[in-house]
Design goal:
The chain is mainly beta. Helices cover about 5% and strands about 50% of the residues. The protein contains one helix and 23 strands. The two termini are about 25 Å apart.
């Protein structure tokens, strides 16, 4: 509890510091440009000149007694519109957020927690040379041997997980330039690491439970991501049992129509098909209404993608319905983030903008 109070106080301090500064010229954020080559390990790290960035790991875990669990660990970075020349260590130029969730069918609802802090003063850091993001004792980092580690001690659980890559980096869109709308600049730099091999420990009620599993990492950064008409998006990442991987998303308007859509389908042999707006369709098979927020989420979906051999359908079934995250206390939105199954694969489904329009 003290950590949450401390983080909330820091967020208010950052807000007051921003509100107190004189009017400044509009902040110029770095643009996302096609043809920009991504290089690693540098692009695993932070890109502080861009407005918004996130590192996002989701996956399925299995306990020694065969129980299935879902999890997510996400770190966000946001550049604030303050004078970058301000020498003060208290100038809140970058804010970091983190969310962690555990989907346990035995609990019947998603367990989740979050953190928020401004970068600096030893409270929160995001390295620009490799993946290493930290808020207090929550951390996501990449080791020299290429493995990622994530640690998050939440209110009702703790995650201490190791992720070993088994496949090469998947560059989304056009070699990492991923369109998110019809307008110029509505895009992100975006790559994924599917089929991460997971090992580690989940702690619940003081009991440490060894787990194994498979996960998916997304890293994305942008300055102008969404069209003004957009209220949210639907996204799914699936680790397929044959070694393939599906990414599919749509950006929605208030009427639920797709403003833009896209993704990728990598086959077991490594060949990659980039999906455009005409290649992806999300169907809603069943809605679930949150008893807390009133949000109505299409938690059972059918995603249809066009392939060289014709349309391919991926029915999505949630591990259980109540996987809603209310992250407003730590500066985030209300959204649904849940473990889902499909015949021949498992992954995660994200549904945003169903309670209120998403603002980045």
């Amino acid at each position: 509890m003290w950590r949450m109070l401390r983080s909330t106080a820091l967020a208010w301090m950052a807000f007051l510091l921003v509100a107190a500064v004189p009017a400044l010229p509009p902040t110029v954020y770095a643009p996302v440009r096609p043809g920009t080559a991504l290089t690693f390990p540098r692009d695993h790290g932070a890109h502080p000149d861009f407005r918004t960035e996130w590192w996002y790991i989701t996956g399925w875990l299995k306990t020694a007694d065969g129980r299935d669990l879902g999890f997510q660990v996400t770190f966000f970075r946001s550049r604030l519109p303050v004078d970058p020349a301000n020498p003060s260590a208290f100038s809140p130029g970058q804010i970091l957020f983190a969310h962690a969730g555990l989907s346990d069918p035995a609990a019947g609802r998603l367990l989740h927690d979050g953190r928020i802090a401004r970068q600096g003063l030893g409270l929160a850091e995001a390295s620009t040379s490799d993946a290493d993001v930290r808020i207090d004792d929550w951390r996501l980092r990449r080791a020299p041997d290429g493995r990622f580690t994530a640690r998050a001690a939440a209110r009702d659980f703790a995650l201490d997980l190791v992720f070993a890559p088994t496949q090469s980096v998947l560059l989304q869109g056009d070699r990492g330039f991923s369109r998110k709308g019809p307008g110029a600049g509505q895009a992100s730099h975006y790559y994924s690491l599917p089929h991460l091999k997971v090992s580690g420990v989940v702690t619940r009620g003081g009991r440490r439970v060894p787990v194994t599993g498979a996960a998916w990492l997304d890293h994305e950064w942008s300055s102008t991501l969404l069209d003004p008409k957009a209220v949210g998006w639907d996204w799914v990442g699936l680790n397929l049992d044959d070694g393939g991987a599906l990414t599919a998303f749509q950006v929605r308007d208030r009427g639920g129509r797709a403003i833009w859509a896209g993704g990728s389908l990598r086959s077991a042999n490594g060949s990659l098909r980039t999906l455009g707006p005409g290649d992806v369709a999300f169907g809603a098979e069943r809605l679930w209404k949150s008893p807390r927020t009133g949000g109505r989420y299409p938690v059972a979906r059918t995603v249809t993608v066009q392939t060289a051999k014709g349309p391919r359908r991926f029915p999505l079934t949630p591990l259980f319905d109540d996987q809603e995250i209310d992250s407003r206390q730590t500066g985030g939105p209300v959204y649904w983030e849940g473990a889902v199954r499909t015949p021949g694969g498992r992954g995660y489904l994200e549904l945003t903008g169903y309670v209120a329009p998403l603002a980045l």
